[in-house]
Design goal:
Elements lengths: L2 H54 L1 H34 L7
Length: about 100
């Protein structure tokens, strides 16, 4: 082989080796990032498991809030009726006669 071909082959070999080292370094970095992400995911899953009982209670609490709203409406209607009947009674003169 000629010297030019040997030099070109040597340069190609060096480029291949350098690229392979760069790829291996990148893979190592990715493995570290994946390990870090896996740790954070484990922490998040643990928190969700801790919060699961509270999250499961949300529909029951929503139903109770809805019931409270119904009672509030009933009380408001009763108070309005009481106030309007009292005002009507006062306007009519305060008599119990029809």
């Amino acid at each position: 082989m000629s010297t030019v071909t040997e030099n070109d082959l040597k340069r190609l070999e060096d480029l291949i080796i350098n690229n392979q080292k760069i790829i291996e370094k990148g893979q190592g970095d990715l493995k570290e990032q994946l390990t870090s992400i896996d740790k954070r995911l484990t922490v998040i899953e643990t928190r969700l498991e801790d919060w699961k009982p509270s999250i499961d209670k949300i529909p029951d609490l929503a139903e109770k809030v809805g019931e409270l709203k119904n009672w509030r409406q009933i009380v408001i209607i009763a108070l309005t009726a009481l106030i309007s009947s009292t005002l009507t009674w006062v306007i009519r003169g305060g008599n119990l006669k029809p």
